[in-house]
Amino acid sequence: GLAAWFMDSSDEDQRKPHKLDPNMPVSMEDLQRLGVFHWKLNADLKGYSYMDIITIHKDTLPNYEDKLKMFFEEHLHLDDEIRYILEGRAYFDVRDDEDRWIRISMDKGDLITLPAGIYHRFTLDETNYTKAMRLFVGEPVWKAYNRPADEFDIRKNRACFFWLLR
Ligand code: KMT
Ligand code: NI
Description:
Layout: E1 3-6, H1 28-33, E2 37-40, E3 50-56, H2 64-71, E4 75-76, E5 81-95, E6 101-107, E7 110-114, E8 120-124, E9 130-136, E10 145-146, H3 153-165
Antiparallel strand pairs: 1-6, 2-7, 3-9, 4-10, 5-6, 5-7, 5-8, 5-9
Bound molecules: 4-(methylsulfanyl)-2-oxobutanoic acid (KMT) and nickel (II) ion.
Subcellular location: Cytoplasm; Nucleus; Cell membrane
Family: Belongs to the acireductone dioxygenase (ARD) family.
Keywords: Amino-acid biosynthesis, Cell membrane, Cytoplasm, Dioxygenase, Iron, Membrane, Metal-binding, Methionine biosynthesis, Nickel, Nucleus, Oxidoreductase
């Protein structure tokens, strides 16, 4: 857990690490610039009004194959995505401000928040199992907009933010 790197562009198995050769790590600071926060649980789970637990394994998740396919489609949400890994491992891939894929490796005890409007996707790794807590501020909205979804204000706000940061 707690590691991130730029991804290669090979079409090989999505569950492999897909590191560049040589590896190009992405720091916590770089992720924070993108609005992505990723840390070991510091008991700061305050302020969330909804929680559930999803067990992603072929024997426990209905429509396992379809769901994994859906999770790996590049998409965004209009709310933050907050996940806390309880067991197993997984990867969250996010697009940086230059549209490069960053792979974030997550395992037991890792918490991540993805900001509303960031393009991202999710995959298991080759261990094929993770149990995650899904947290939400307010009423949960699971609606995902597959790319392209640039018509939303949140996308324009993000573009403006990165333009100002340049
Ligand atoms: C999402 O929206 O990307 C997901 O819910 C990923 C799977 S939950 C660990
Ligand atoms: Ni998502």
